[in-house]
């Protein structure tokens, strides 16, 4: 059992009390507290988590996009795109995970956490680039990892592994040119899970 300055059970109760109806759920698993809020309450919940005396999550340490399109082989019934943030309270030595889901799959939009934690700036650009999630209120929402002319969002579950286009340097034109992907798809052998003691292995 890990020693905590504030026990996860107490933190869960504190967060649930602070957020009240703004939290769809506040769960505890593997000694980690996860909060799910609706898109309409995202900013208000973030401000409460930052400023409430029992929370004081001064730092956003990570933020990334999620695509649940084939989560658990289609058993997922919620929205497709979401954003998960990990928050740290240096002063109280505690952490919490904050999740929000975009209401629309066609144009996934959630509020930007930039006004709450400036560290969100680059993380949200990454989630925009790789998942196509739009962060409303972000003051510089541009691609950050892919090329400016890149088509699509490579971390979406329906994005082809080989991509849509490839680029190369054309010696005649003396510049980089884009063209359709020339890579032939190859057959991938599915992973086989062997039964226990396969091949007479030791117990």
TrEMBL record:
Pfam families (alphabetical): Complex1_30kDa
Localization per Swiss-Prot or TrEMBL: Cell membrane
Keywords noted in UniProt: Cell membrane, Membrane, NAD, Oxidoreductase, Quinone, Translocase, Transport, Ubiquinone
GO cellular component terms attached to this protein's record: plasma membrane
PROSITE patterns given in the database record: COMPLEX1_30K
Enzyme class: translocase
Location of the NADH:ubiquinone oxidoreductase 30kDa subunit domain: 36-164
Topology versus the membrane: Peripheral membrane protein
UniProt family annotation: Belongs to the complex I 30 kDa subunit family.
NCBIfam families: NuoC_fam, PRK06074.1-1
Assembly notes: NDH-1 is composed of 14 different subunits. Subunits NuoB, C, D, E, F, and G constitute the peripheral sector of the complex.
Protein name: NADH-quinone oxidoreductase subunit C
Organism whose genome encodes this protein: Acidovorax cavernicola
